[in-house]
Amino acid sequence: MTNITHSTMPLSRSAKALPKNPLRALYPLAARDGMISLANGHPSPDACDHTGLQDALKTAAADPMTWRYGPTAGDPRLRSALADISGDQQDSVVVTSGAQQGIDLTIRTLCNAGDTVLVPEALYPATLSVMAACNVSAYAVPEDVGGICINGLDKAIWDSNARVLYLTPTFGNPTGSVLSEDRRAALLALCARMGVLIIEDDPYRDLWFEAPPPPSLWEMSKSNDARVIALRSCSKSIAPGLRIGWMLTPQEITPHLVAMKQASDLQSSGTAQMVALAYLSSGRFSGWLATVRALYQARHDALQKGLVAAGFDAPAVTGGMFFWARLPEHIDPACLFEATVAQGALYAPGEAFAACSQVNDITRYARFCFASNSLEKISQATDRLADAVHLSTT
Amino acid sequence: MTNITHSTMPLSRSAKALPKNPLRALYPLAARDGMISLANGHPSPDACDHTGLQDALKTAAADPMTWRYGPTAGDPRLRSALADISGDQQDSVVVTSGAQQGIDLTIRTLCNAGDTVLVPEALYPATLSVMAACNVSAYAVPEDVGGICINGLDKAIWDSNARVLYLTPTFGNPTGSVLSEDRRAALLALCARMGVLIIEDDPYRDLWFEAPPPPSLWEMSKSNDARVIALRSCSKSIAPGLRIGWMLTPQEITPHLVAMKQASDLQSSGTAQMVALAYLSSGRFSGWLATVRALYQARHDALQKGLVAAGFDAPAVTGGMFFWARLPEHIDPACLFEATVAQGALYAPGEAFAACSQVNDITRYARFCFASNSLEKISQATDRLADAVHLSTT
């Protein structure tokens, strides 16, 4: 018999397997004096309707459900308001503590330890954290500029034996790509035929510039045999600090997801739910979204111009928050990153998003967020970036 | 190749194993017109400092962290305020989305599928849900009126091969029992010697009547080799709708718990955190707690009197929210429950709290919450209960 020591401390395989989040590892750099960070995925403080939200807090103060226990699936009034956004029924909506909890709940509810989930080659790293926490493996599906490739997907499904596919088909993180309506239809048909459930992570859908994106996989699945669980969020369109997201789920899975949520946190914060409800009920949401879209589009244009001028291949995107830019050729990625930090700017290196260590060429890419900084800061950051490219080339 | 149907839907073993929460199953009964429920574990709306909380909302409205992303472990100011409550350091505190998330995170971080965790014979059923979600088994440790028995615990540890013990040593749910300081010391020494980590679920600690309870296992472990993770909550002392709890954790486990939390929900609601911070900083908390203690003590006394008059064996407790009362002898538990519901009152049957199906005699007990109802309602409820006992006897 021994005392518990560091080495004998009980620690699950899941806990041991959890990777360090490579984006959170950049936070100390981002916090340096004078640093301009294009690395994070944070909405701009300017994109937060403070006046409307402060009014929402006042309204929430008078609602008893701000303080009391409520239903696990969410307050029925909020579920109804969230359902209205996508023309769904309240029963399809389960409120979550941010879309991150939606990822966790769906993986826990659908997958056993040892299972494999299909994912894009480049993806949001916290999804890989959830999979590690559930002892689930990632199987990378090739992507092109239009999102995941349907050709060869049937073989990937056979080879991986996966029953679940995770993707962000609209303004993808990190790539910014949008799956076309045709490709969506082909994906749904294939997944329906091969018995694969799709987790559609969809937090950026509202942030389009000129025209709305194609219908969601969730919406298209209604006229299709495919099964889709969609994850939505108030984080990019209202405020990330609320930690209110929602799942749209087929009714045969809903009770299982709700039971898993109950084990996980009983219910999402009633305080946050009532603030979100008051804001959505205030009539300000659609007008404010238009403001945010225009703000982000102007920043997108400015950042693209600056990146191209600095030597990056940075194709325009049609919404969301991110560029997936190819580094100037004949430049060492590690040197460029170091030089950029030294100049006082920061981006997220491509390898932070790799589904696995075999993803080809990913170190030659980087994610740049156009949402978080003012036009002036964006201009300063791209000047610094151009200097860093220059210094790394010579 | 087949379409996904209900029967082929991917569903994890965890999701299949999740039990229905027997307390939530009582909600439809509790919602009946005129029903007085003593079954739930909800703080009284009268025990919520609405004036103070509305002021806290106003203060939170001006704080940028109400709306933005923040650190996974919680806002440093809130961690510091929560640490102050127990005389700890900020580094020991990890903010959780209610203590329920603390249970989930600790089990996920400490236990593998197939592991066994020691639990009291009668416990909070949502802990069993977490264990089912993690494919972890419960091994019941005998209890007496003073909480879990130390005699025989070494054998239980050997027999179960468990590395983790979960308990609520202070105003236990459902039993209301308090582990004495001597028994705490013996428990800590034994667990230290045998390499068992203790999860101390401690949400009721502040709700004492005449005198504070013994020091927490967490506090006592500082002068001991035992390892304790304590789970605390704002739900019983401020407001459950906030969904703000916290863990006190040994520093060698903290990064693992934080990584698991990051995968689970990134961070707890900033909105709720800033309201909790503003309330704790307002200076109202300790005065309000005194009000709540007096309120609950009066209700405790009234409910005890009524239960005894109705024929129950309902020993006084010294704080918390619950009686664990033995049903009148020579009465069928199922008949009594049905008769009580028919009379318009509700309690939580003992078997809802059984760690396993082998727990002796548990159907002869029931949990009664004295916190939720006014003195007038308590009097009506015990009158109805007395009628139900009378009807079930004759």
UniProtKB/TrEMBL annotation, chains A, B:
- Ranges for domain Aminotransferase class I/classII large come to 37-385
Q: Which UniProt keywords apply?
A: Aminotransferase, Pyridoxal phosphate, Transferase
**What GO terms are given for molecular function?**
2-aminoadipate transaminase activity; pyridoxal phosphate binding
- Indicate yes or no for the key word Transferase: yes
Q: Where would one find the signal peptide in this protein?
A: none
Return one Gene Ontology term, BP aspect. alpha-amino acid metabolic process
Any one Pfam family match given in the protein's UniProt record, by short name: Aminotran_1_2
Q: Does the keyword Iron-sulfur apply?
A: no
Q: What is its EC number?
A: 2.6.1.39
Query: Per its Swiss-Prot or TrEMBL entry, what cofactor is needed?
Result: pyridoxal 5'-phosphate
Protein name per Swiss-Prot or TrEMBL: 2-aminoadipate transaminase
Q: What is the gene called?
A: lysN
